[in-house]
Design brief:
Blueprint (H helix, E strand, L loop, with lengths): L1 E5 L3 H12 L5 E6 L2 H11 L3 E4 L8 H8 L7 E4 L7 H7 L1
Parallel strand pairs: 1-2, 1-3, 3-4
Helix pairs in contact: 2-3
């Protein structure tokens, strides 16, 4: 499974990349630090899974997820956030 990691915090991206690398059958194909870069990277690398933060500059994760869902073969989006207040919005987005 091809994984795209999206988070504006470099340490969070590194931790997620380590967890993915430890999981057999999963490979990090790209990283992004905001939703806009996530869309660009998804168009280039066609990930199966996107691990995405919600609160980010430029474009947040919810907006990016809605755009990712319009792709012909959209990836599964898994939100990784410490903000539980976004749970219902995240569920509605994908």
């Amino acid at each position: 499974m091809r994984v795209l990691i999206v988070d504006d915090e470099p340490l969070a991206r590194q931790r997620l990349a380590r967890l993915v690398d430890e999981s057999a059958g999963y490979q990090v194909v790209a990283e992004a630090n905001n939703g806009q870069q996530a869309i660009e990277q998804a168009n280039v690398h066609r990930p199966d899974i996107v691990l995405m933060d919600i609160r980010m500059p430029v474009m947040d994760g919810l907006q990016a997820a809605l755009l990712l869902m319009t792709l012909d073969d959209p990836p599964a989006v898994i939100f990784c956030t410490a903000y539980d207040a976004y749970a219902l919005e995240a569920f509605d987005a994908s």
